[in-house]
Amino acid sequence: IFLHQPKRSALNQLTRTLLRKYDCGVRPVHNWTNPTTVYIDLILQSVLDVDGKTQSITTSIWYRQIWTDEFLVWDPEEFDGVSEISLSSDAIWIPDVILSEFVDEGKSPPIPYVYVNSSGSVKNYRPMQVVLACSLEMYAFPFDKQNCSLTFRSWLHSVKEIDLALWRSAEAIANDKREFMNDGEWELLSIPSHYWQFHQDDTDYAHIQFTVLIRRRPLLYVVGLLIPSIFLMLVDVISFYLPLNSGTRIVFKISILLGYTVFRVNLTDEMPATAVRTPLIGVFFVVCMALLMLSLIKSILVVKLLHHSEKEVRQMSVSACLLDKYGSAGHVFNDSALTSIGTLDNINPCGEYELEPSLEGDLLSLNELQDTPSGLEWLHRELVSLRLALSQEDSESLGQADWLALCSKLDCFLFRLYLLVLALYAGTLMMLWASWSFA
C-alpha cells in the first residue's frame, strides 16, 4: 500500500526556494559597490499628546519603507503565477533606518511580515505610535503653533551603502491630510520634507526630515479659562458702583478674590507645564489676581479715609488742600462746623464761635434764666437746649456730607485710573493673541 503525499503548495515551495540559501545579515546586492536605496513615505494619522514639561510629542503615523532585495527575485510562471508573497521580517534583511528624535516606541502594534514581489521589491508597511523629542514653544498657549521634526537615517550605514529617497513627491506628502483625525485639539497645517546628507568622520550619511507643522485649536481653552476669568474681572469692575459708605464693597471684593483663587487652583491641570518659560496665559492669570488685589487695596484705602476723623484729616496738609478746593456746592468748612460735635457744656459763650443771631439770643436768655428756677423757665431752658443740639447735628451732617463727597471724587478718580490700567493690559493681550492666531 502506497500512501499518497500531498503536493506542497506553490507558496510553500517559493518560500523554501527563496530562503534556502538566504543570509539576513548580508546587504542584498550582487555588487557590493551599489548602494541600496530605501524609499520612505509617511502619513500622519493623529497627534495624541504634546507635553511641554518633558518637551515631547506623541504621534500616530503610518510608515512605509520600500527597497529592492536582489536575492528575492523569481519567475512567477515557475510557481503557479505567484507574483507576491509575505515573508517574516526576521528572515530577511531589513535596513537599520531609525528616527533620530525617537524617545519611546509607545504602543505600536507588532507587524511581523513584509510583502515581497517577484522583482525583488520589499514593502514594509506598519503603523507606529512614537514619542518624539521636540522643542516646544508654549509661550503663546492656547494660540500656539508647534514645529516638530521626524528625521529618518541609517544608524550605521553610510550613503555609499544605504541611501534614502522619498517614495512620493514632497508636495504630495506636505499636503496629504486625508488620514489625519482633524476633529481633535490640533490642526495639521502641512508636513514639508527634504533630503540632506550629514558629514561625519569623512563619511556622508543620508537623512530625510519630515517637519510636522500643527496649530492648536484655542476654543476649548478660551471657553474654559479665559471667558470665566474675564467675567470675574467684569464683576469686580461693576462692584465699584456699590455705595461707598454701605460697608459691603470690601466684603464683595474679598469674595471675588477668593472665588478667583479657587477657580485658578481647579484649572491648574489645564495649564501646560513648562520648565523654562511661563506661558502668557499664566502671566494673564497672575496679573488678573494682582489687579483684583489692587482693586481691594484701593477700596480699603478709600473706606478708611471715609471713616477717618475730620480732625486728623485736617492735620494732613494734602487733605486740607483737597477739602478747601473740592468742598461740595460752594460750602466751605468753618471751625464751627468741624467742632460742632459736643454737648452744651462745651460751648464757649465768649463769642469764640459764630452762631446764628437767633441762637445767640437763645443762649443769652438761657443764661439769664438759670438763676430763677420756675416750671415755665425750666421748660424754656430745655427747649433752648434742644434747639442748640439740633443745630449742632445739622452742622455735623453737613460736614459729613462734604467729606463723603470728597471721598467719592477720590474713589471715582482711582476707579478711572484702574479702568485705564485694565484696558491697556487687555488691549495688549488681545493684540498679541490676535497676531499669533491669524499668523
What proportion of the residues is helical, as a percent range? Answer: 25-40%
CATH architecture of the largest domain: Distorted Sandwich
Rg over CA atoms, rounded to whole Å, is: 44 Å
Run of helices and strands: HEEEEEEEEEHEEEHHHHHHHH
Assess the beta-strand content as a share of residues. 15-25%
β-strand number: 12
- The class by helix and strand makeup works out as alpha+beta
Q: End-to-end distance, in Å?
A: 85 Å
Mean pLDDT across all amino acids: 79
Number of domains: 2
Could you name the ranges where pLDDT drops below 50 across 5 or more consecutive residues?
Answer: 1-6, 328-355
Instruction: Name the overall outline.
Output: rod-shaped
In CATH terms, the superfamily of the largest domain is: Neurotransmitter-gated ion-channel ligand-binding domain
Function: Forms serotonin (5-hydroxytryptamine/5-HT3)-activated cation-selective channel complexes, which when activated cause fast, depolarizing responses in neurons.
Family: Belongs to the ligand-gated ion channel (TC 1.A.9) family.
GO cellular component, one term: postsynaptic membrane
Main location: membrane
